[in-house]
Each structure stands twice: as structure tokens, then as C-alpha cells.
Amino acid sequence: MIKSETIKKLEDNKAFAVVREKNPQKVINIAKAIIDGGIKTIEITTDCSDICKAVYELSNIDDTLIGAGSIITSQQALSGIQSGAKFLVTPVLEMSIVKFCKGRGIPLITGASTANEAYSSWKVDNSIIKIFPAKAMGGAEYIKDILKAMPFLKLMPASGIGIDDCID
Questions:
Q1: pTM for this entry
Q2: CA-to-CA dists, residue 30 to 19, 23, 157, angstroms
């Protein structure tokens, strides 16, 4: 299992922003505001028409962890990494991306919706699994239910989960 310093930082940071915007300059401006607000881990999605420009500029800011997200092809993965992304995020378990990342030692967060998908991601040594869309799947209770059966999973809820949902 790839347990890099990047994965450790992802696990330790707890807060994780996703910027989904088409205009690269807007992506940069939004991400800089997020960084100024104290969140240093940001996923820039491939919705951005020039994800490479945004990732490159943001990855040069000290103490930030910038990743490329919504990656579904090896070419997108390569472009993201060449631009300075420290990790990749996929919306699904795509084995070509898993192989790409393993071969290059790149941390990967795979997307999953069901417990079976999350388990399949874990079986191929993905350290963090992004449950998406978490709120639509049942929110914090859904995450808790998956973890009851498989407490060894490192799950990251995405889409519609706020801090209030995580407080017992």
C-alpha cells in the first residue's frame, strides 16, 4: 500500500476543498481564497478548461496540497501529475488509473458509492476512498453504517456533507 507523506497529510488535514469551475483564473482565485481561509488541501477537477494551468500555479504555493480530480483517463492523470498535482482523485474505481498511479508512486483517492465499491477500492490498496455522492447515499449515517462492517476503511465523504453532519 502506498503510504506516502501525501496520504498522511490528506488523512491528517480532515478538511478538503473541491473546486469545480470551468474558468482557470476563477479556479485559481477561488482556491487562493480557500487557502487564505485556512484549508490547504484542494482538489481541482477536470471541469476546468485548463486544469494544468490552475494546478501548476496553485501547487507552487507553500504548505498546500493540490490534487487533480475527476480523472478518468490515463492522459488526464499524466497531465495532472506533470502540472504538479500531488495526488489524483477518480469518481470511480478505474483500474487503468490505479495501475498508472501504482507504477509511478502517485497517491490516489478513488470514488465509490456502495460498500462493495469501497471494499473493491481497498482491495487494490487505495488508502483513501471518497464516498460520492455521500448525502444522496444517506449522509453521515451511511458512512457510519459502512464503517460498522468495515472499520479499516479510510472514507472521505463528498458532496453535501457538512461539519454539522459529522458531530454526534
A1: 0.88
A2: 7, 11, 21
